[in-house]
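Dear support,

We are seeing what looks like truncated structure output for some complexes. This example has three components. We would appreciate it if you could run it in full and send us the complete token output so we can diff it against ours.
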Amino acid sequence: MSKQLSRRAFLTLAGAGSAGALVAACQPQVVTQVVKETVQVEKVVKETVQVEQTVQVEVTKEVQVEVTPTGEKPLLRFAMYNFDPWLAALPKMFNDFEAEVGTAQVKLETAPWDQFWTRFESQAAAGIAPDLQIGDPFKVAHYADSGIYLNIDPYIERDKVNLEDWLAATIGACRYEKSVGRIGQGSLWGMPATLVGTILYYNKGLFDAASVAYPTADWTRADYQAAGLKLTKDSAGKTASETGFNPDDVAVYGSSTIGGYSTAVHLWNNGGGLVSDDQKECWISKPESIEIFQWLQDLVLKDKVNPDPSWFTGQPDTFLTERVAMKVDGSWNVDYYVTNLPFKWDIAPIPKGTKGLPLVSYAGTNTLHIYSGTKTPDQSWDLLKYISGPGGMKYFLATGTPALISAAGSKEYMTGQPEHRQVAVDVGAYGRTYYPDLGNDQWKLVYDQEIQALWLGKGDAQTVSTDICAKIDPILAKL
Amino acid sequence: MAASTPAAPVSLTFGDRLQQLHVRLSNSENLYGLAFVGPLVLGLIVFTYGPVIYSAWLSLNEGDYLRPPVWVGLANYGRALNDPIAQRALVNTIYFVIGTVPLGIALALMLSVAMNQKLRGIVFYRAIFFLPTITSAVAISLMWAWMYNPQFGVINTLLKTIGIKGPKWLASPDWAMPSIMIMAIWRGLGYNMLLFLAGLQSIPKELLEAAEIDGANAVQRFFRVTLPLLSPTTFVLVVLSIIGAFQVFEYSYVMTQGGPLYSTLTAVLLVYQKGFQTFEMGYASALAYILFAIILALTVVQFKLQARWVSYDL
Amino acid sequence: MHTAIDRKAVTEIVLKSLGYATLTMLAITMIFPFYWMVSSSLKTEVGVFKVPPQWIPIPPMWSNYAYVFTVVNFGLYTLNSMKLGILWTVGVVLSSSWAAYGFARVHFWGRQALFLITIAALMIPGQVTMIPLFLLMNRLGWVNTHYPLWVPAFFGSAFGIFLLRQYFMTIPQELLDAAKIDGCSHFGIYWRVVMPLAKPVLASLALLAFMGSWNNLLGPVIYLYDEPLFTLPIGLTRFQGMYVTYWAYTMAGGTLSVIPILILFLVTQKYFVQGVVLSGLSGR
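Here is the complete output from our reference environment:
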């Protein structure tokens, strides 16, 4: 950023600086550009002169014209994986950006999720990654650590961006501290777009049919389990709590709460977890964790209210097909369900633990990043700021929970199905991350495999958990 | 080979070697050879072995392609050979190869003989058998996952009607790999069938007719005439099938992610996980090259054995 | 005499019917996923996974296809896939037969070793060479162009070379010697004798090569970023998202991409299967 100023440049700087002072109130960005790039200074001088003349007239319009003297606006490449709501929202945001801010043009590059990351890794290795892209919570550490993402602290400071305008958890998801390899602290490497959290979905129709009261914010996992027993029915109509219930012929399961995040939230609410926050200790074999693993295993094998994971093979969404009455899952489905579910449903916060601990759930953020090797960092920042600000957020509303507090709480977002939409926003306040620190995949791959023993009935929670920690400890030691 | 090369000399002087080179270069067969395989060699160097050398170098380091790697010599190879998960992956892969290659080839062979007949509507049968090969992998994986569902999949439902309680297929550590093997054989049939059909065309009808006149029945004609004449094609398919089977990846990646309990973790899936999920590309490369060495050794053995059963002359 | 022929005829008929029955059952399993893919493409999103499954979608949602056509630039992508498919196929067939002839009929020094090196290329998992290859393509300036997706075909395909070499080795030496006597060089033999004889195998190779290029997803995704360059698989996987996959549209896409290959197969299969009459009794 620091270049040696030649005499000519110094003089133009001084001249531009005084001209810039005149429009400082209206065009702070133009002023700072003057300081930064000596090459562009002359261009800016011309621009400020133009703007000065028309400052009372539509400023927006002038901005579009002013950059053309030296050629076209830079083109920003924005990479996103296939996710229809975003693919619909992003072009609208880009149009608005080009009209309102106009320092660059934007092109959207898409790829299917599976290939998106292999492509990004290849592009990063070759030095041709797109200027901006969406991030993955579990890869942010890797790309921040290897210097692929741009550190945006300087821009935050320069533009005096108030980070408290966004949900705290979502800003935390963009922070990474290299010296300890941890997400949640340190410099800022991107901005948040939308929030997802783990919540409880329930099928009102099935609840009514079984005469079970809807979930409330006071529910504990004991209440959840009790409801599950009444909601699980075999094809003869017998519930899981009745004698004569046929577990081999279940028509509807009451519960679906086994999966990466879905399992973890119960652990957290019991004071347990998978690993310690600094990723050094294995917590899977802590008594608080074992208690939950046993409870979950009982839900599957004893109570038969939760299907064992094999039941899901070949059927992607059992809530959609009404095979499952309640599920603990991510809020990313909410808007898809609003459009597609043919029955009455709602959402609620996940059930609390039974130990009186404050409620904790999973909250993750879809983050947006700038490539450190971009040739147009300033314009990229312009776009990033716009998209994560009110301008972009009004389109993100339609895709999920916005990370910007004002947008999330806006009337627009809060009205509509389902009745308790607020839950999807609130989860940002009490949600935590799912171990996104550097190297997290190394132990997670082992955990994901080994935990299956529990659902297959190959041992009780105590044995399986201790076994897993024995395998994970050496990996954690190296991280 | 050049006829004037001295046979088994005691020692070759530099002059001798120069003369050998001169003879070789001016040998027209060698020049023709250069013309015919020249482009191939160029392509191999640039598009294949160039990248291979780079990735082989990375296997001697720890890290990925994004930042300066750290030299560790053969540590990755040592780690791979001692890693129980890598060992399991290799065992799974060998299991897969043994389970799918012989059966797959045998079935494809029989199928191709059947498809080779001039019968009404045979064209549509051929197209039908080829369909799985050209239908998208996604559709196929989804279909089979659904069929394999333990509670209401088609397979277990059918088994129930004859009184057998079907296993959990993809969800069972014992049955997951066999489930994938069945899928793989089923999918590869059309592909191999196509190549066998092409090979069958080169068998002169006259030979088969002559054999029939001599009193050979269909089975005898198949084993005494068709099969030996088909051996060059069979050889290709066996070698290529083994090479392909050792690198099986798609099925476990899409359907089971290596589970349950590592039972469908194949070597290449592990390579992918280590390369693109945990970002340990150096280690992943080492795994890949160990696999390469194994496949290469097996292929060399097959080539040496081919003299025993493959006949190129009529 | 009479009874012997009758018994033979009866056994033949029984075996034939048994064969037919097995074949038909096998054919049903073969066609099943295709059928399911097509029928799913005509259902609503919710209807795709209904249990018990709805075998015939009523009413058929042709609108799914309409949607796919509006969202995906079908015509352009198909054209690109065609172009790449043809280029790739021509490249593979020509370069593989060229090199295969060299391996099969030209006795040059280092033949065996080079052949093994060629085949060895197939034994290296692509996942570890993907990024270095990408770096190379970037150096060549071929990223975001079609070049990486067809130029390598003109330098030989290990699979094609192996396949064709086997075939070329079965061509009787007498034929080649006769051609030599007639004054053909190796080039002449290649073009005038060997290639025409190899039509069945060449046709099979062409079909498989075209199919490989047509269905290739990873290559186009990694190398192509500008929409005008996109191929069909890129367009059709648009509906496979991270959280949610729109199955009905995905199946519609899958159906649409199978049809050209199927047509190609039906049209070309007479080139590589002439078929034989296995039993002399059927008369000529």
